[in-house]
Amino acid sequence: MVIVIATIKDIAKLAGVSPATVSRVLNNDAGLAVSEETRERIFAAAEQLQYKLPKLKRMKRAGDMARRQIGLLLMASPDLERLDPYFMSVRQGIEAECSELGLSIAAAVRLGQAEKQPLNHLDGVIVVGSVSEAEIGSVYGNLQRAVLVDHACPIGGCDTVNLNFKLAVRIALDHLIRLGHTRIGYIGGEEALDASGNWQAGTRPAEFRDYMAGKGLYAPELVKLGEWNPDGGYELMRQLLQEDNRPTACFVGSDPMAIGGLRALHDSGMAVPDEMAVVGFDDIELAAYAHPPLTTIRVYAEQLGRSAARLMAERLDGREAAKHVTLDPTLVVRESCGAANLKQ
């Protein structure tokens, strides 16, 4: 039995093009100007001749992906990205994974710029942060091609990538309770948009309330919400200190807010952690250099972004059912909680 192995010339003859064109198409040469019809004809001819079938499928998939263009819809302003590196890390994770996948990011739109730069002409959109369904719809109409990252309100048909907030809150509060704290406050930002586009309390304070209520320890007067920045953390911590029966520990919704809160404690003459233990959220680089170094929840922000890019690639490759990815956080123990040497 003689096995005939197809060659580039055989494909070229069957497809009616030159061998050079076949070679460049099969190798996804970005500099080649060729019609989609010609490209499909070449791959069909190669498949008909059974030309390196496993490799051919990978080559075709890579070529398909390279021609797809996606957009980013970002809740965080450039100023917020600067103040809270979490959002920048998520975006950088998306960009890095898209680069490795050969997927092109054609545009990035900040919240509030949707009318100026719609993205309906693109193949998909990755949304970072709690953006309302109406806002997403004004930018991009096909929700089955939208991947939501760190989005507090689920939207039917969309892929999602989220942190396991329930676990994050539990391990932070378990740690503080294990250290003997029962009166624990929470400060954080308003983080979720409802169907009408109004800011709501969001996931972190809700999980805090549920956990503390389950322990019989919830005190609503110890929950303070404001701006997601160090100034917000400073002001909310000062409000917390004005309570008649102030807490002995505080869980803070982001590290930049926690750093602002630490400054408020220092300015008020409160010793950390002796008079107030503090646990942050994110584990940004500066957390280790706070005074004192900040105990915090590590959330793997870049991995959230990379996971979103992979979900988008799967959608573009034909997956129809929505998929939801949840990443578990870990606790990083430093000096601000009073248990830097406690092993987890």
UniProtKB/TrEMBL annotation:
What UniProt keywords apply to this chain's record, in alphabetical order? DNA-binding, Transcription, Transcription regulation
Q: Per its UniProt record, what Pfam families does this chain match? A: LacI (PF00356), Peripla_BP_3 (PF13377)
What SMART domains does the annotation carry? HTH_LACI
| Residue intervals of the HTH lacI-type domain | 6-62
UniProt xrefs under InterPro entries? HTH_LacI, LacI/GalR-like_sensor, Lambda_DNA-bd_dom_sf, Peripla_BP_I
Q: Name one GO molecular function term.
A: DNA binding
Its protein name is LacI family DNA-binding transcriptional regulator
Species the sequence originates in: Paenibacillus thailandensis
Q: List the lineage, top down.
A: Bacteria, Bacillati, Bacillota, Bacilli, Bacillales
